[in-house]
Structure formats: structure tokens, C-alpha cells
């Protein structure tokens, strides 16, 4: 009887061990999948934080956007007035307005439309141990730095540009139509007067984000 009891106990223990082992084997892939998901989430959050931090110097980023807008202004060619006289009156004369292109909505659209897409040609380049600056890349294939990182920076400043224009576009458009935005003045208008991302004393000095609540959104 004692022998049978010992045998039964051994069988019962062996079955319990097998059940526990099977449970562990089945749970391991799930736990591994969860671990991989957590690692992926952490890497994604780290990448997002890195992209956000690369435009922490909003003044420098704003100046880069201003530089690209100045290129657009410099490349403008003389344009004829816009003839909006499309209606004929009872005497057969054309009715409507003739608008100076320089103060037209069309000019604003042509200057600002696609501006942020062009910012994807920019990346953050290390100048020395303490300084980085946004530069325009002419040939990505010949880029000596990490291309994946450089592309991430270009997407970051393009996104920043979109948020910047979302906040300032209406006022910027009005100033363009008034002739107040000219080559050499874009950084002052956009980065100092409108967005307040640069101080009034220097177009290359960042404003403390605590002084302007809107800075945290860009």
C-alpha cells in the first residue's frame, strides 16, 4: 500500500511538473512578444523625443525657414498685374479689378505654398562640440554624416515649419501683401515680430520658452 501511494504521488508530481512546464512554454512567446512591444515602444518614444529636442532651439529653426523664404523672394521675377476684369457691362466694357501682383493673394500662395516641403532639404549639422546649425543639403548622396539621422532632422524641421506657418500665416500673408516682407527682413518679421522665437536684440538669440506660452506648441 505504501509503495502504491509513493507511486501515485510520483505520477501526480510528474503530471503537475509537465503542466507547469507546458504553461511556461506557452507563456514564454507571449511574454517575449510583450517584451519586444515594450522595447519597440521605448525606442519609438526615444526617437520622438530626439526629433522634438532637435528643434528645441526654435530661433535657429525659424531662421532656417526664413532663409528658405528669402530664397523664394530673391527668385521672384517681375510679373504683370492680375487682370480680374472678366465681366462685361451693358456697353460691352470689361468690369472688375486690375490687381498689382505684389499685393495679390496669388503671390502669397506662390511664396508660402510648398515652403515646408522645401525644408526637407535641410538638416542639423554639428559645427563644433558646442554648436549645431541648420544647413541646406545639395546632395544627400554625398552627405558624410549619418543619413538616417539627417533625414530624421529634415522631417523634424519640416514639421516645425508647418506648425510655425499655422500660427503666423495670416499675419505673414498680410505683411507680404503690404510689402513689409522683403529680402533681408524675413527673419525679423517671422522670428522676432510674429512668432517671438528670437529676441529683438538678436535674430540668432533664442527666447526663453517660459516667456512665451505659444513656444511649447512648436
From TrEMBL:
This is DUF3456 domain-containing protein. InterPro entries: CNPY, DUF3456. Pfam families: DUF3456. Residues 58-198 form the DUF3456 domain. PANTHER family: MIR-INTERACTING SAPOSIN-LIKE PROTEIN, PROTEIN SEELE.
